[in-house]
Structure formats: C-alpha cells, structure tokens
UniProtKB/TrEMBL annotation:
Pathway: Protein modification; protein ubiquitination. The keyword Transferase does not apply. GO terms for biological process: monoatomic ion transmembrane transport; protein homooligomerization. Residues 126-458 form the At2g24240-like C-terminal beta-propeller domain. It comes from Trema orientale (Charcoal tree). Residues 13-97 form the Potassium channel tetramerisation-type BTB domain. This is Voltage dependent potassium channel. InterPro entries: BACURD1-3 (IPR045068), Beta_prop_At2g24240 (IPR057441), SKP1/BTB/POZ_sf (IPR011333), T1-type_BTB (IPR003131), WD40_repeat_dom_sf (IPR036322). Keywords: Ion channel, Ion transport, Transport. It holds the Pfam family Beta_prop_At2g24240. The keyword Transport applies.
Amino acid sequence: MDEPTSHFPSDRIKLNVGGKLFETTLSTLRSGGPDSLLFALSNRPNSDPNPVFIDRDPEIFSVLLSLLRSNRLPSTARRFSNHELADEALYYGVESHLKSAMSPPPLSGIDASLVSTVRPASEGFASAFTAGANDGSVWIAHGGQISSYDWNLIHTGTIRTHLEDVTSICRVYSEVAALGSDSEAGLHFYDFSGGRNVGAVHWRDPSDPRIFKARVSAIADSPSSVFASFYCPHKENSVLVIDKSTLQLQSEFGRQNGSSAKNLVPGKLTWLPERGVVVGSSVTCGAFGFSGYIRLWDPRSGDVVWETNEPGSGRSVRFGDPFADVGVDVEESMLFKVCSKSGDLAMADLRSLKEDPWIYLQDNNPSLKTTQGGNNTVIHCYKKQVFVGRGGGLEVWSRVANSRTVVEKENGVCEGLYRRNFVDKVEDSERGVIVKIEGGGERLFVCRENAEGIEVWESSNSSTLVLLL
C-alpha cells in the first residue's frame, strides 16, 4: 500500500540545479503558479531524501528564485541578458513573474528617455511598424520582410512577404498583421505563427474601369472589423471594411475622386469605440501651403458624421494656418491638430463636435523655445498624452490635474489645461527627422528619416535591467 503524500515538517524542499544545492520553502515554489514546473515539484513526495535534480544553469535559477521570494529581480540579474532570463523563466513556467518585474513603469512623457534602438538584422531601415497595445512588443517592416520583437524586445522571428516593400501595417490579432504596399495592390494578411499569407482583399468595381490596382494608404481595426483606405492610379479612393473573422470584404464607404485636397485618400485612420465611428484625415502640402480634411464616418451606414476642411473653415484668426498633422486620443475622445505655420496645438471634443470646435492650447513657460510647424511635424496621442515630433525634436503635452483653465472666447485660446515639455535632449534631436510615433504597452516607439531601427522610449525611472540592443 502506497504511503500518502507528505512534505518535510519544516515545509522546506531541496533542489539540485546544475550541481548546486538550493533550499527553499514549498510556498515559494508554489508562488510560480499552478502551471509552473516548480509548482509540480513542490508536490513531490518527501519519501525520497535526495534533492530534486534539474539540469539547468544554477546562477540564473538563483535569480528566478529570488524573484519568487520578493517579486523583484536581484542586482545579480545584471550579469545575464534579457534573452537568457526569458528562456529560463519560460522553462520553469514563471515568465509572467519575470515580465511583471521587467516591464517598464507607466509611461510619462515628461520623465521618458531613450532606452534602446531595435534594429532588424537585415535592411535596418524601417518602412513601417506597429506596436503591441498591451505588452509593448513591436513588429517592424523593412523592405519586404517583417521582424517581430516580444514584450522584452527580444527578436522572435522574421518572415519574408511576397511584397517588394511594406509601407503600412496593423496588428489585427496576436499573430496576424494586415499589410499594405505603395508598390503592389491589395490588403494582405500574414500569420506570424506560420509565416504564411492567409488572405488578401482587393478593391474592385466591374462597373467602373477606373478602379484597378488599388493600393493601401492606411489601416485601422476594431474588435470586429479592419478598415483600409485604398487609392487607385487615377486618384479614386475609398475605405473598405473587412470582416475580422473571415478576412472577407464586408462593405465600403467614403468613396471619392481625389482630384482636390479635400478628396484625397485618408492617410490616417483611427477607430473611435466610444462613438463607433472611424476618424480619417488627409493632408497635403503644395505651392500654396498645407491643405486637407478631417472626417468622421459611421461604418455601418457609410454616412459622414462630421467633417472639416482646411483651409476653408475655422476662426478668422486661424484662417490660412491649416493643420500639418492630426491625432486622436481614443481614451479621452479628443481630437488634436498641429497648425502648419504657427506650430500651435489645438484640440476638439469628439463628443460635442460643431462647425468650429477647436480650442488652441497655450503654454507660457518662458524656458521653452518657440515651436514651429511645417512639413516635418507629426503627432500621436497615447496614455492621455499628446506627443509631437517637430523635425528631430520630441515634445509632450500632458494634462494638468485639477487645473483652472482660462479660455479666451474670441480667439478660442486655452491656458493651463495642458503643460508642454521636451521629452528629448539636444543630442537626441540631432539623430534625424521624426516621421512616425506610436505607443505600445508602457513604451513609446519613434521612427526617424534615414535612420536605422526604431527608437524605444520609456519613463526614466525604468529598471536598469533594460539593455541596449
């Protein structure tokens, strides 16, 4: 008759890891979680006096054991690369504990710094990228290839697509991306787990011969749909709605001929869940300056809910100073624009849009240099903050808690609601013109013109264990 399972009276267990003895408590091992290897070992009967032998690196095991004891990584962890720690954590089934300990703190643009630059091994110049909203991972398109990096910024694989180059990318599932190219027609879906093409959608209309070789300009997604703006050689354009479960064309809206600035293909698309609308914008710069539009569509009906064209609308004091770029704060349901001449930042409440909804933010901090607009201005809203790239410089506008705001009704200028600060240092701004900003997890990713790789920015009090790649 087998003896019942029992443990040392002291609730202790001995392990032999790579020839080095460890003694710990059962509760420490079980803190790794019921699915971990260490939890399984804690249920071993104590009838065998010999320590459990594990043929792994004892030094890294010591780090992980310390992590289970205190929920923090010890200073000895600095001797190992992130890759080594992640591999061992995966083996023992405690990867979630390591991820929690190594993840950066909440992103604060005021207190952010450059911690690494992710560079693909081949063709290091990124043509597009998309960040993981929850975990701070990133997928980078370079040429016709896409390289993926996990939450720890460790390279997990590279796939080669059939496209010559990828100029737009959106992660629609954890392992599936929607891709577009300026050189080839269609929206293409790739599964990273198998490295294969799992679908494609083309914009066609047998009744209209102008609709052919339609390429993708921008991509966005909702929980159930993928939205892609298509454009044809003769400037016809439209936004297509693709069913996310079947990857099949569902409908289209916003069809127009882009012979004028107010009818160009949307260069940015954003899904706004609070209102169930798609926000699209387009901007172009010609001999007479900037012009463009912002438009809100209801994808179910295809109707335009609200729109503005610049120049051509707005207060007289702002006429002739149209936007150079547009950003949407999804969390706060706010719309932001950067003026092309003055460089001023303006916001509008997407829940109460009207003919002229703009309030222009003003920061009178004398220590900050005067901002400028122009071609090299990009904007991105993330974590209730507004990040603006002006040439090579990066700044953040953060909302001031419990502030008293003063709005000058005649000119629509607001003071005190947001505070502006520079994220970067002078040497950072000299690395090249910022062309795209995107947030993911608690990280900010920045791409610069003619610069290899994607910059990774985190709050400056992040763990010193984040290594430069």
